[in-house]
Design goal:
- The chain is an alpha+beta fold.
- It has one domain.
- About 40% of the residues lie in helices and about 15% in strands.
- The protein is built from four helices and three strands.
- The protein has a three-stranded mixed β-sheet, sandwiched between helices.
- Strand 2 and strand 3 form a beta hairpin.
- The longest helix is centred in the middle third of the chain and has 14 residues.
- The N and C termini lie far apart (about 25 Å).
Length: about 90
Amino acid sequence: MKCIRKLREKGCNVISITEQAKGCDDKTVLDIAKQRNAILITFDKQFGYVIPLLSPDFIFDTLKWVIFDSGILLQGKYIVVNESKVRSFPISNA
């Protein structure tokens, strides 16, 4: 995905479920994030279905804001983003 490439170009260590474990269920995604001590960011309200209507540039700009500018503490959380809000939840409670 374009946004993944752009985040990697900015120096982010991005693990893409689409690249590494496409088709896995939500629990597996959370397990992968927990095992790798990774920050999990999704644009999916139901968590598990990629919303195709968002442009790669919108996704990149939003991820860039969440990671670098939002001030949200990301470690140990999974992040749910939509057009109007950002929610974070502890991975351990997922």
